[in-house]
Amino acid sequence: MARDDDFEPKLGRIRSSPLERAYHKAVLRGIARAGGRPGKSKGRFNGKHSGKGSGAARVLSPRDRFAGFRTRRVIVKSLIVQLKDSLDAAREHLRYIQRDGVTREGNPGELYDANTDRADGRAFLERCDGNRHQFRFIVSADDGADYDELKSLTRRLMQQVEADLNTKLDWVAVDHYNTAHPHTHIVVRSKDDRGENLRIAREYLTQGLRERAEEIVTLDLGPRTDLEIINAMRAEAEQERFTGLDRSLLKEMDGQGIAAPPFSGGAFRQTLLAGRLQKLRRLGLAEEIEPSRWQLAPDMEARLRALGERHDIIKTMQHAMRDRKRGPQLADYAIYDPAEGRSLFGRVVARGLSEELRDHRYLIVDGTDGRCHYVDIGSLRESYPRGSIVAITSRRGEIRQADRTVAEIAAAHGGRYSVDIHLRHDQTATQTFAETHMRRLEAMRRRSDLVEREPDGTWIIAPDHLVRAARYEQMQNKLTPVVIETLSNISLERQTRRIGATWLDRELISSEPLPLRDAGFGKDARDALIRRQQWLIEQGLAEQEQDQIVYQANMLATLKRRELARAGGQLSSELGLAYVETKPGQRVEGTYRRHVDLASGRYALVERSRDFTLVPWREVLERQIGRTVSGIVRDDTISWTFGRQRRGPEIS
């Protein structure tokens, strides 16, 4: 009789059960879906299917092939924004999407969420505090104008997204109606309903979200009719941008880059593709190497996308210059290229966002050369009002001397840097000089992970610090490709008779005045200079001797002093304090209240117990509003020290 503890070994080759084999195959399939290659060292994980929503995205992905052209088209743009240590970027984005003029009535945008039409943006930002990142979406339906309002569409879309991700979402949105296609900006917190970091699969962000939006819009408005589809496809055949027909041609190519009929999809589609090839031939992007065999340019897609972007930019410039009595010809439109390294001077005609998700901005500048220029200014957030006069130069992304100094000192002190180490290494250096290097390192740390700081304030400097500094400058060039100097915030017309040292005055006495073309802003500036000359003669600041104008030696200083005295008198009655003029070499100490824009430039209002003064302004002062500042006036500038401290960082 066999007992429970009897054991009889069976010799032979180890075999796996059907269950184990099935499990093994499932693992291999999972690796393949994640982009890996089982058994190959070159396989790598790309994260495409990692995160919530990957299953829903895979279910939705085949639908694009079989839905044909009946589905209503929706464009969805998504961006994951790292919040790092500050909510400034998130706060600025919320402020932007709620700006004036985005509703049908031209009013500010209204922030809403899943439950209320007036969401609390400040409370939403407080909930975002400490979050690792933030999701931003733009949802734009081609037929969005058919909706009376987009709130219902957005809420149903977000409900479906919550179902796909299997979690509640904390989100706010704003609808914009100020473009040809009404669209919605959606901001989503990076926390799920359990308070854990929310990770959404890339496949869902790039495809699943769009499929869900198209599904809802098609359900609301019905599938596209045959006539709508035919008209849309015919329009694509002549467009000078990358279209769906180009995508089809690329799929039809063989291994040698040759496209040849008969194309799949029926007679009508073949006719459209044949017509598109003729258009590409005229654009220099396709060549018929033999009857019915076409060679497509290898960079066709990139060149078509660039061409489409250029057309969009020209439309933006034409819209901005529509108020001019005689608008520029097509040859007078130009796109400013920072790589050329030239300077641009002109008047700001318009400003806007070139990429709303990333808050990238542009300026339209009416140049002194008579041409209208489109300038991509990246993430610069300074306000440049219409009519202001600016000078634009390309940003030089070069390694700074401060980077070389930090690398040299760190190499001599075991890869460490601090103010104390700097002062010991170079006994001729001052505290202020060393602290400028600290600010450079802090900027690199705050905007990248290229440097590391220990709790005691000592910096760990890598041996390849100069390489990292060059990489940081490249990143900054992408964010802010240009440097903009505001020459005057006052329009040309107001400058002609304004008390103050205006841009016109500086041009009149300049040894190298700007060349002015007799067209556009160049012509307007030339006429304004003549009127300004006559006004200066009336004021006794210039004299006409035969065929030339002679200006007083101290003309600019006199104009500046007169304007400051006049502005000081006006502010004195407003503040109830006496105005005191500050002279070069004098120390100024008080509370910084705000900036004041004058014809002579921007000045800082520094208030003291019984009086106030106006001194040259610096951008760094805006972070010191309401705080104590002190400095020494030096002609047209001032060296600032912040806070009541014996020694501290000076900004010269």
- Kindly state the mean pLDDT as a whole number? 83
DSSP strand content: 15-25%
Strand order of the largest sheet: 19-22-21-20-23-24-25
Major sheet details: 7 strands, mixed
CATH architectural grouping of the largest domain: 2-Layer Sandwich
Number of helices: 19
Shape descriptor: globular
| Helix percent band | 25-40%
Query: Which structural class do the helices and strands define?
Result: alpha+beta
CATH fold group of the largest domain: BirA Bifunctional Protein, domain 2
Give the tally of β-strands: 25
Key attributes of the depicted protein:
seven-stranded mixed sheet; 6 domains; alpha+beta; 652 residues; 19 helices; BirA Bifunctional Protein, domain 2; disordered C terminus; 25 strands; six-stranded mixed sheet
Give a structural overview.
Helix 2 (54-60) packs across helix 7, helix 6 (151-165) packs across helix 7 (202-221) and helix 8 packs parallel to helix 10. Mean pLDDT is 83; it is low at 39-45 and 644-652. The chain has six domains: 20-47, no CATH class; 54-221, BirA Bifunctional Protein, domain 2 (2-Layer Sandwich); 232-296; 303-397, no CATH class; 401-479, Orthogonal Bundle (Arc Repressor Mutant, subunit A); 557-651, Beta Barrel (OB fold (Dihydrolipoamide Acetyltransferase, E2P)). The protein is built from 19 helices and 25 strands. 37% of the residues lie in helices and 22% in strands. The radius of gyration is 32 Å and the shape is globular. The strands form six sheets. The chain has a seven-stranded mixed beta sheet, with helices on one face. A six-stranded mixed beta sheet has the order 8-11-10-9-12-16. Strand 14 and strand 15 form a beta hairpin. It is of the alpha+beta class and 652 residues long.
